[in-house]
Amino acid sequence: MASNSPSKKFSLSSRYGLYGLFFFMGFSTMAWLPRFPEVKAQLHLTNGQFGTLLTSGAIGGVLALLTVGHIVHRVGSYPVLFGSIVVYQSAMVTIVHLTSPLLFLLCNFVMGMGISGFHISVNSQAMYEQDRRNIILLPHTAGMWTAGSLSTIILSGLLVTHVSLVKHIVTLTIFSFFAMNIMLQAVRKDSLQGSKEPEVKRDIKYIYKTFHIDWMVSIGFLLAIQFEFAAGDWATIFSKEDLKIKVSLAAVPYMAFMFAMIFGRFGASKMIKRFGMENVIKRSGIFGGVSFLIFMNIAVYFTDRSHTLTFIFIVLAFFLGGLGASFNPPLFLNAANNRSKHPASVVIGQVGVMNTSLTALFKAIIAWVAQFASLQVALMIPAVMLICVGFFAHIAAHKGEAN
Known about the structure:
InterPro entries: MFS, MFS_trans_sf, MFS_Transporter. The protein is built from 17 helices and no strands. The chain is mostly helical. The chain folds into 2 domains: 10-189, Up-down Bundle (Growth Hormone, Chain: A), CATH 1.20.1250.20; 214-403, MFS general substrate transporter like domains (Growth Hormone, Chain: A). Helix 15 packs antiparallel against helix 16 (375-387).
């Protein structure tokens, strides 16, 4: 829902500050993922035990998604942005020192809350600026997050054998903290302000009563984003184990996917202006899903025939799939805001809760299909889901109240 604040022109410094916040969000939150083996070894845990502990972050995130949107609506985006940065980055600096699984669980819970709090507040700020300037901004901000994520994954890969886990994460987090606060000051003068409405008691009962599921948006969003999650979870494993690509090159298909996501998201506005939002959503989903299915299966065919052709075709599959998947998730988040009577900050939290729940379910389905059939078959599921996004294109393309 658009803000009722008077329209005003945003400065370039505010806009670039917002882009910077998204970039450093991806840069800081994704930094420790390539170093999970070291974190697990430090805790002396098995894969199953470590994976179970990681779910505490998702639980903390869901708690924040349910509550932080109401806080942003009441006090504005700036205090929550600053507080979230302090919380999740303090937790990140702490967590890489821990050797106790119990302390890790608690710290990861707090970090999950902080990251979700930042996600809600920074996207609320993006929607506020988007509404005031009457432009489509969310694909660009999502592109900046992806660029930050890719940058830190590449950096982590270069440092993993040369710099210790603690030195890497602590130094990067401190740098990110100061950089994000510079960006935050640039955004502050144009930040989303707190509501001037009379105070409403927002207890657990109120949050429960006002929680609304827009099933059309939720299903469309799930179909649009599942390919992105599946690529992150399985691209490198599929390349290395199923396609027998060298370890040193196994991450290249996923990197190609990330580059395509960045390219697509920054070009989304031009595509929408030229072809219209509904056409872009339909065609990009079909293009990405069909291209991935064709070239992935060609890559599998050449696995025992030509390592070079296998590598070329799987990189092409993930690049074209990423290009097709890049446009749609931000557009469905935008649709959720347009169709809801609630403030943007609350809508983002509600969509996040549903997305987290449905995504966890489909991640499990894909994992078990990979276990009992093959990864080739499992990766067809999110590709087909991407193709089906077109059935919900009208939801994202047109404003209107949700049923």
